[in-house]
Amino acid sequence: MSTNIHTVVGLVADTNTGQIREHNEDDYIIIPDVIATESRDFGNDSYVLGSAGCLLAVADGMGGAAAGEVASQSTTYIIKKYLATNKYEKPTPQEIKYVFEQLIIHSHKNLLKLIESYPEYKGMGTTLVMGWIVDYRAYICWVGDSRCYHFRQNQGTRLATEDHSWVWEMVKKGLLTQEQAAVHEYRNIITQCIGDSEHPPTPSFVSIELERGDKLLFCSDGLNTMVSDEDINWHLSQTVNVKLTAQQLIAAANQAGGEDNITVAIIEVLEKPIESYTGSKQSIWKKMKNMFK
């Protein structure tokens, strides 16, 4: 008996300007098949993962005017371009980390070149959180305070990432609780971003073994500054499709004030790998006969 990897997932992403901002500086991408091979479509935004897995990313641009949009959209473009020209059919954990590092490096250099060519873009940058899901494991990389939450049935939701921010540094030092950090006046001060010429980004990494029913939520801080972790957990715990969950999370952030752009990307593990026989038809028949002896 062998295991054929046919992990079925639900995928969705959406973004919203919010109630206060005049334009949207967030961006996102979902690549259902990183190697761009044929995938079976189960409908309702569900996919069978190929050997290269799928990738989700959320970028939260900053810099004012159109600069924030340039930073986030340029970064997601670099990701798509890099993965289109560098193929990893069956990526190892080491290769995935290498690719993540290269994506951060290329994105950072690209923004610095844009700032050099267009002085009006000075001060722009972007956060980035990415998830590469292969088989039943998620590999997560981030810079800044865009987050990934991990929901598991019967265990609830936990924060899988640690913000690169001033308040999170205070939390790790024991000087603030997570609840205090969520409402602190300096909660928007980040310690890392892509595009900062004085402080090149140093991404963080984590990997998570997934189970059937697990959900990963990637989001910009326009969600978690408006919606509490407790309420995020409630939404993720509902047995609805991920498309509706994304809509409800964005609506909740807007109902709470919508003070920033809101972007969410969600993956849900729907099915486990399928075990199948690889022996001859005769051997399978013998096994079937033995079952009825």
UniProtKB/TrEMBL annotation:
<keyword id="KW-0378">Hydrolase</keyword>
<feature type="domain" description="PPM-type phosphatase">
    <location>
        <begin position="8"/>
        <end position="269"/>
    </location>
</feature>
<dbReference type="Pfam" id="PF13672">
    <property type="entry name" value="PP2C_2"/>
</dbReference>
<dbReference type="InterPro" id="IPR015655">
    <property type="entry name" value="PP2C"/>
</dbReference>
<protein>
    <submittedName>
        <fullName>PP2C family protein-serine/threonine phosphatase</fullName>
        <ecNumber>3.1.3.16</ecNumber>
    </submittedName>
</protein>
<dbReference type="InterPro" id="IPR001932">
    <property type="entry name" value="PPM-type_phosphatase-like_dom"/>
</dbReference>
<dbReference type="GO" id="GO:0004722">
    <property type="term" value="F:protein serine/threonine phosphatase activity"/>
</dbReference>
<dbReference type="InterPro" id="IPR036457">
    <property type="entry name" value="PPM-type-like_dom_sf"/>
</dbReference>
